[in-house]
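Lecture 7 notes: from sequence to structure.

We start with a single chain of 405 residues. Read the sequence below before looking at the structure.
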Amino acid sequence: MRYQAATRAEGEARMAAFVPRMGRHYAAGRNYDYGPDGHRDVSGLSPYLRRRLVLEEDVVAAALAAHGPEQAEKFIQEVVWRGYFKGWLERRPVVWISYRDGVLRDLDALDRDRALRRAVADAEAGQTGLACFDAWAQELVETGYLHNHARMWFASIWVFSLGLPWRLGADFFYRHLLDGDPASNTLGWRWVAGLHTRGKPYAAQGWNIAKFTGQRFTPQETDLNEVVQGLEGSEPDGLPPVTPLRQPNAPDPKRPSALLITEEDCRVEDYDLSAYDIRAAATLGASHLRSPLPVSAEVVEFEAAALQDAATRSRLSVEALRAGVPGDLARWAAKAGACQIITPYVPEGPLRDWLREASPALEAAGITLCEWQRSWDSAIWPHATAGFFKVKKKIPEIIHQRQLL
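Now the structure, written as tokens:
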């Protein structure tokens, strides 16, 4: 999959082009990975959905209009997975904290263990000697994309065949995936490792890889370790309890405001900006916060282009900020005479962490951080308390509630 323009127009053009294949064609072909130039049976919309250059409910509505609920069912379910993972992590933010802190510990261990350091370097460079795995590693680095089925195989081989720390694999993905977001990436790796759905790890199998790569790769079963149990023993206390959803501060149209645009939502024009007293506006580059290690140039550039496109569509005078010293956010807003910063909802992840670090300076300056929350999230997240099945059962109700059919 090759990406060029990180714009709303490009995302909507890709969506329109894929609409005819959102029904039975997608259901039949979605699991096949034919390589970097052969991803014709999947939409390739994920980098645009991740930044909300394209909206989930617009994609679902297009699928329903073209194919109806029965034929579009599988495509719609896959779109809803992203919202489910985001909601699940919102209900268990300690899982993000555990991942974030665990990456730091794993990197410290890497510094002390030369053999492990070499093994991780070989895996990331695609030099393990296992043809399929090496090809996927190289495709990820070169294109910023991997087919979803390849992501599952790759993660399983990383954890169970190569015996590498799962968080370092997740960090490798997060540094390179154009569509990487903290919820889908962290929980996807946890799912493969048997930590999300406890005791049910995902096993990469040679016959499955051969079938769904069209025989591009034919690993022997002896090339892959048999997976008999996951990593649930590393978390003996099990999953943390479900917590209430965070209720954001609602913006006050009467207060002097500063508008902040992040890659969490690049469609600020969907909100009635004219209803607010906006004294300043800025984009906030934050993709470098994804990892303690350098994030790929392609991810940083895609984010920058998406933010620039969002700024242009806002029709405001917008400056470009970078998430550096958290206290800078308060200084920027105060200089503009703003009493509140307005931004679309920022879910759990590195940017939310950074905003938490900025909170003391904002409070000291009398500035409130306010967020708009999309109705799509409000419809899905309350149900994201356990496995996906609970959300899946609610999809018809959500479609009716959002008037998408």
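Residues 93-112 form the longest helix (20 residues). Keep this in mind for problem set 3.
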